[in-house]
């Protein structure tokens, strides 16, 4: 489907242009390019104060955590438990947000216990993805108490707001329990001693966008502050881990999240926390290409390298034991070995995902050979797909066909002897803009064993008996609630350039608004005058435009020698080539592209040059008049 391309800079009125020109004269923005201010303004960052906060804000500008409902109650319960020498368990999740939450909570509570001369033990616990699944459960609490029988207080991180049975089991055992979470609350309220979740209806704070690690980090800042301890020295040194969790959990990069990620990246690059030094060295050890090695950590390092690697542990192994062992291990050699294993697990995850994606693509193309035959929602089931990657496959389907997608696989529950005692379908969903996938689950909840999530993504389970009824009714709901316009992907382009305008200065300008992420993506730039010069491949001594181990990367050269690269979407370029009936006699092919300029280092020539990285498959022979 052809996307709708919206040029942000063309939406500015003359009055707005003059306003930005006046702002640019202000001394506070003397080192900021006009183009940066324009990008901020067209993305909703409009006033002088909003721009100041965006560009210069730091951890001193973080919102007041005491505004979160039950935040002071959290401090009171935790301080009392530790001063009474009671043992505490952090009950966390099996993704990077859960991992980061546990790293920060365990470290800071152990440190607090040390500062007040307490003998409290601080432990962590997480379900197996393949046994108990997500969130605090009754059996999980039982298992936790078998492992740590002296526990008096459980604190959930990144889960718990819908863990009714698990929380109640803790209360039945006369334990104190605090729920800290960042997910949407359910129809009931969990029976906890304190509930801290910015999404509660009676929470009036501004923390709705925090991830789980962000919530516990803010609570521990408050605890240390209330106790008269040095927040900057003791708590903020963990902001690098919170930043990694924030990026990995795909929460909006605005408000406090922006400050956390910006300051966290600075901290990570200093490598004061040896975890980040070892991760960088381990990644570079197993990376074949020098250009892919990590020289400086940025939000893309977190989002594409470290975050997925930690997530892959829970996806493939079910538990986060290896991640936590890596974090708490003191022997550097052992820690390096664990880090390499983590990246190797992620490589295996990539291979499994690529195979599953290819299989699903072929299946969907066979079932629906053209766009008009696609249903309103794509629901697929495959027992051969690993449970831990079904969400990644759903994302691939959604992005490829621009339809909401749910991918199911069959899950088997076994007893202690390995005998199957139950089987059901577990699914993961991803949605397009304007279609709330969890509302569709609300409408069809009678066919589900359980579900959760938010507007864009969710998880669900369904019995074997109800599976076909769910598919039928979910498809009907989607058909009745999705309009044809919602299928059209929208691409917001910040501005257009010619190839000669892609310079070091432009690349540096785009760095001024970093970090980029969810709700504030890297600026999309259109190139309007790129003419592929096929004769240039002989000059460059390249066999063809296709490169990489699988020949799926496309490297384009224009008449001036300017290069553009597109990863994993060879088929898009071939569509353009196929429009020429006499291709052998065509040496120049005009194209348009959308992506990001890059000032790249070439190790062979020991020099830098500008090039263009095409985003996704945004290569066309039209648009951008």
Please write out the topology.
Layout lengths: L3 E4 L6 H12 L8 H9 L5 H9 L14 H13 L3 E6 L3 H20 L6 E5 L11 H10 L3 E6 L7 H9 L3 E5 L13 E3 L15 H15 L4 H4 L4 H10 L6 H16 L3 H13 L12 H19 L3 H8 L3 H36 L10 E4 L8 H12 L3 E10 L5 E11 L6 H7 L6 E4 L3 E7 L3 H15 L8 E4 L1 E3 L6 H8 L13 E9 L2 H4 L6 E2 L5 E5 L5 E4 L3 H8 L10 E15 L4 E14 L5
Parallel strand pairs: 1-12, 2-3, 2-4, 4-5, 5-6, 7-8, 13-14, 17-19
Antiparallel strand pairs: 8-9, 9-11, 10-11, 14-18, 15-16, 16-17, 18-19
Helix pairs in contact: 1-2, 4-8, 5-8, 5-10, 6-7, 8-10, 10-11, 10-13, 12-15, 13-15, 14-15, 15-16
In DSSP terms (H or I, runs of 4 or more residues), the helix count works out at 21
Strand content: 15-25%
Rg calculated over all Cα atoms: 26 Å
Main sheet specs: 7 strands, mixed
Q: Largest sheet, order of strands side by side?
A: 13-14-18-19-17-16-15
Uncertain residue ranges: none
Overall outline: globular
Euclidean distance between termini CA atoms: 20 Å
What is the subunit arrangement here? single chain
What structural class do helix, strand and pairing data support? alpha/beta
* Structure summary, number of beta strands: 19
Mean pLDDT: 93
Helix % is 40-55%
């Amino acid at each position: 489907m052809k996307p709708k391309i919206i040029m942000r800079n063309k939406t500015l009125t003359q009055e707005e242009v003059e306003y930005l020109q006046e702002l640019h004269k202000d001394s506070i923005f003397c080192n900021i390019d006009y183009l940066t201010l324009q990008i901020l303004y067209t993305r909703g960052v409009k006033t002088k104060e909003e721009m100041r906060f965006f560009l210069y804000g730091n951890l001193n500008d973080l919102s007041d955590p005491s505004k979160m409902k039950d935040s002071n109650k959290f401090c009171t319960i935790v301080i009392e438990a530790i001063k009474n020498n009671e043992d505490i368990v952090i009950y966390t999740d099996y993704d990077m947000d859960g991992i980061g939450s546990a790293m920060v909570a365990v470290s800071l509570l152990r440190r607090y216990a040390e500062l007040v001369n307490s003998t409290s033990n601080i432990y962590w616990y997480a379900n197996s993805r393949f046994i108990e699944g997500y969130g605090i459960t009754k059996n999980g609490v039982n298992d936790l108490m078998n492992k740590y029988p002296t526990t008096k207080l459980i604190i959930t991180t990144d889960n718990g707001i819908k863990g009714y049975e698990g929380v109640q089991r803790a209360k039945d055992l006369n334990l104190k329990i605090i729920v800290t979470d960042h997910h949407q609350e359910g129809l009931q309220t969990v029976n906890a001693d304190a509930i801290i979740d910015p999404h509660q209806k009676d929470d009036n704070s501004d923390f709705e966008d925090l991830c789980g690690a962000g919530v516990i980090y803010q609570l521990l800042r408050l605890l240390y502050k209330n106790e008269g301890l040095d927040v900057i020295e003791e708590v903020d040194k963990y902001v690098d881990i919170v930043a990694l969790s924030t990026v990995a959990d795909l929460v909006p990069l605005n408000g406090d999240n922006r400050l956390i990620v910006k300051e966290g990246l600075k901290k990570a690059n200093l490598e004061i926390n040896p975890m980040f030094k070892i991760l960088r060295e381990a990644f570079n050890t197993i990376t074949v290409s020098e250009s892919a090695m990590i020289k400086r950590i940025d939000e893309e390092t977190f989002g594409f390298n470290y975050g997925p690697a930690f997530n892959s542990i829970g996806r493939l192994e079910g538990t986060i034991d290896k991640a936590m062992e890596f974090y708490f291990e003191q022997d550097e050699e052992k820690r390096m070995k664990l880090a390499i294993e983590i990246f190797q697990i992620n490589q295996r995850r990539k291979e499994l995902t690529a195979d599953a994606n290819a299989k699903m693509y072929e299946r969907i193309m066979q079932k629906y050979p053209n766009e008009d035959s696609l249903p309103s929602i794509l629901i697929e089931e495959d027992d051969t797909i690993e449970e831990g990657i079904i969400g990644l496959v759903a994302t691939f389907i959604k992005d490829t066909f621009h339809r909401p997608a749910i991918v199911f696989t069959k899950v088997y529950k076994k007893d202690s002897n390995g005998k199957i005692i139950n089987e059901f379908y577990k699914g993961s969903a991803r949605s397009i803009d304007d279609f709330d996938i969890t509302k569709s689950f609300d409408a069809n909840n009678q066919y589900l064993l359980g579900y959760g999530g938010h507007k864009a993504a969710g998880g669900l389970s369904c019995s074997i008996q109800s599976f076909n009824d769910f598919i039928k009714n979910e498809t009907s709901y989607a058909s009745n609630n999705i309009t044809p316009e919602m299928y059209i992907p929208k691409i917001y382009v910040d501005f257009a350039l010619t190839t000669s305008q892609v310079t070091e200065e432009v690349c540096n300008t785009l760095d001024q608004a970093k970090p980029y992420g969810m709700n504030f993506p890297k600026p999309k730039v259109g190139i309007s005058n790129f003419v592929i010069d096929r004769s240039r491949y002989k000059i460059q001594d390249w066999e063809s435009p296709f490169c990489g181990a699988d020949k799926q990367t496309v490297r384009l050269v224009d008449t001036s020698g300017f290069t553009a690269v597109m990863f994993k979407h060879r088929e898009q370029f071939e569509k353009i080539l196929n429009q020429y009936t006499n291709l052998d006699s065509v040496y120049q092919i005009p194209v348009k592209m959308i992506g990001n300029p890059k000032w790249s280092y070439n190790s062979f020539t020991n020099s830098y040059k500008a090039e263009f990285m095409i985003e996704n498959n945004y290569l066309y022979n039209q648009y951008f008049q």
